[in-house]
Amino acid sequence: MLIDVHAHASEISRCCKANSYEVLTAARDAFIDGIALTNHYAKKYINDGDPESFAKRYVDAYYNTKKLGDEMGMPVFFGIEISVEYQKYVHMLVYGVDTDFILQNPEIYDYSFEKLHKTVHESGGVLVGRVEEEFGKENIIVSGFVEGKYCEATPTTLTFTHETWDYMHKEIEKKHPGTKIVGWIHTHPDFGIFLSEYDKFIHKNFFSEENQIAYVVDPIQNEEGFYFWINEKIERCTGFFLYDKNGVAIDVTAMEEKEPETEVVQTGARLWIRDIVLAVLCVAVVLLFLANRSLRAEVQELKTEQQHFAQITEQNFRSVEQYFNYIFGGYTTVVPDSTTPEADSTTPEADSTETATAETEATTGTENANGEN
Question: What is the pTM of this model?
Answer without folding.
Answer: 0.43
